[in-house]
Amino acid sequence: MGNSVPTEPIFNLPSRSNLSDADRNGFIIQFGILITSMMGLIAVAFLALAVRQPVMQHIALGAAQGIALIIAGTALLPVWKSPSTRVYLLLVGFSSMMLALAILAKDQVISAALVNLAFGILVSSFAGFDKTSEFAITYSITSSWIISLAGLLVPVEKVALAGIDYAVPSIIGIFVMIYLTLLAMEWITATLRVRLILGSLAIVIIPLFTISSIQSILVQNSVTERLSGSLSTAASQVSGVVDTWLANTRDSISRQSSLPVLANYLVLPPPDRNNSPQEKDVLIGFQALSKLSQDYLVSYGLVDRLGNVVLDTNPAEVGKLDGFTNYYTTSLTGKSYISDIIFDEIENRPYIYITSPIINSERNFMGILRAKYDARIFQFLLEENSNLSGLITYPILVDENFLRIGDAFEFTQIYKTLAPLPAALAKDLKAGFRLPKLEAAQSTSRLAELANTLRNTPNTNFTAVRFNPDDNSDSGLNYVSIARLTNKPWVVLYTQSSMAFTQLTNSQQQTTTLFTVILAGIVGLFAMVISGSLTQPIAHLTKTAERITAGDLSVNAPISNDEVGVLANAFNVMTARLRQFIGELEERVLERTSELAQRNETLTIRSRQVQTISEVARTIASAHQVEAVLTQVTRLVSERFGFYHVGIFLIDSNHEYAVLRAANSEGGKLMLARQHKLSVGQVGIVGYVTGTGLPRIATDVGTDAVFFNNLDLPSTRSEMALPLIGSGEVIGALDVQSNQANAFTQADVELFTTLADQITTAISSSRIFEETQHALEEARIVHQQYLHQEWTREAQEKLHYTYEYTPRGVVARERLVSAEITEVFASGQPLVHSILQHPGSAEPATLGIPIKLRGETIGIIHLQDSNSDREWANEEIETVQSIADQVAQALENARLFEQTVRRAERERKVLEITSKIRSTTDPKKMLQIAVEELQFALHASKTQVILNPVEVPANEGHSSNNGHSNGSNGNSQLTKG
Length: 977
Description:
Helices cover 54% and strands 15% of the residues. Strands 1, 2, 3, 4, 5 and 6 form a six-stranded antiparallel sheet that branches. A six-stranded antiparallel sheet has the order 14-13-12-17-16-15, sandwiched between helices. The protein has a five-stranded antiparallel sheet with strand order 8-7-11-10-9, sandwiched between helices. By secondary structure, it is an alpha+beta fold. It has seven domains: 16-190, no CATH class; 229-243 and 379-501, Beta-Lactamase (2-Layer Sandwich); 248-377, PAS domain (Beta-Lactamase, 2-Layer Sandwich), CATH 3.30.450; 555-616; 622-772, GAF domain (Beta-Lactamase, 2-Layer Sandwich); 802-902, Beta-Lactamase (2-Layer Sandwich); 923-976, no CATH class. 28% of the residues are buried. Strand 18 and strand 19 form a beta hairpin.
């Protein structure tokens, strides 16, 4: 073997005890070679990327890395004699590279700042000389802060770099490995200030970034939860809208099917129906109902008991046989029915049928009332409720076979299934006209994942799905909230693109990161400033603290001329006081024990008083009348607290006198009897309290002794009065008197102020209760007057007032007046006439039951039995009374329905006249149309329109007005008739 050439190690570490500038230069150069080599590889990688993908960001990154490499490379030149200069150049070059990475690379702000901080800490640790080491740590903290802020705030479009997420941890790992190697070889030197700064940063930044990471996760979860909740609320709202429309429409059809005119028409033989009065009544009702219904109503129709369409607002429907339909077979059971979406066999248009059976008064099935609606109503409802959860959120409505009934997201996908249906099922649905006539490829969407979720997990309320299976990006994902209807087995899907979620999450995370970076920078700078003033005297202070901790209270800390000296002086003062405190501790403990015992006794007494106040307040709160409340208060306070006299004064309406309203003592009752009152603000303690609104205590000594000259209360030796304040105004006073001197203290004032507030509340509540009862009674009387007025007008407008059942049927007659009927109308009570009530009478047995609507008698059911021996049983009277109640409600409903129909007809006429007037722009023609239509509609013999324009000044004369001037006042007149 030949002679081997010894190789130089990468780090040629000299002895720690003999470090010279030359040694330090050699060490920095070797470390600089390693760093610049690493930076060179990074620069080459970015330049190669810029060549392959010549976008602006890649070119800028490559150029920035090249400049940073040049700056760092100059640190290796032999011209530099000072090691500090080489360190500065390495720091500036490396931070320039990280700055460019943070500004131009996507999601690399924190990574670049951490790598820069790790590099600065490594340089400051092995530099080995104070000033350079302190500069390195200061520069690394400041530059890392600037890098973070620049990366977050500079408005530059960032580019994603493949593999960068693995490169950053590798670089940090290399720095950590070098640091641990130097630490193991004891080549890391740092001043106390550097260690203090590094410790402060480690204590603050690590938890700060940990909390920031946790907060980012919480923010993402919160946004997801908020998005889920928002979409769920929107889906529930849309499902509620659809459900409400279905339920309201079904209930409306059910109510309309109970109209007597429908049963009266269907009971006619088929040959007698055409052009019959009953048919005209039904058609008029259909027209009125059609105008009150939605725009998507197609037609109203009647189906007889055999399933034939006998009448329809659409003549083309008349004559069809609907006996095979689901709605017909369901209606036979007596239930209303909402059909599925049915596609027209000829036009392929979707409809929905809502039906209700028609039952006559004998509870016989007569036929079906059928309403046919255009299924586009659901698309309209969905479009009206789009963007409920923010922009770009849409609802989709699907039936149990996953057919899109409505879609505000993709209009072109309406009436397509989410996924292909099984062949047998699709065949059956098409046979039942449940699917449109489309080609197989055009009748479905590629949403099998969503369909499987709805099919296999019926309890799922939230999911994520791709509406475009070919788009695998994050933006292609859609969040879907699921809400199910109650009236149909349909499902509302409320969808939102994940882009909104991503943008919101990124925005909040960026805000959190910016706050964390700013706080970390402030902490770092603050630590650098504070560390310089604490490093030197801190060691002496530490030793002093250790001796004091060990129990040596005779030691004093040395005092310096800075903030730490103030702390040392505080230590000395604390030690002296501690010695004094130990001597006095036993005495203070005894004093405090005695004081605590007294306080406990006082608190026990006060607790009992508070409990008593609470019990009194609960007792008076149950009363509803003011006088009862006041009487209870005086009695309970006197009994529970043993006071000689308790009285309550209330201020009169003129705010002149405080009038005694309640008292418990014998003298107080005498004062009540003579209506005792005191002038507000003038006489006695009560006058003072009611005048000022402040509590007051008086005893039998001192300046207030003059207040105890009441002959009715001769034993009073102390008195306390508290104001009753409600809504910021004094309404009275609580007067408490005792036969003991000095019976009241300021603590009693505070305690009884609570009771006074409870009394005020009870008084206000009682007054409100009485006012409410009075208002309810007035409302009942007004409503009863309204019913009386309306039914009086209704009776005056009808041609017949009496309907009598005879062997020929029901016959309308003029008003039938008798003493019995008059008596029932006057009393509002049932009238029973039989041999039991009138022995020996030969008149027929009679029963009169009032038809009462909310207390108002609007009619009478009058029954007669030719057998005078007939006795009316209680069950019969109760049965007729129950029928009378039902008749009253039915008559009121019929009256309200007739009012609605008349109002609809009036509005129709107004609309027709308005449309004709708007058909021209000629004012004269408008007026002519108005008078003609009003004369025709109102059957008037003469109609006039008189205009009164603004009067023209006299000096301008009368301007031309198309020949319609009428005198000096400028009136214009158009007459018809």
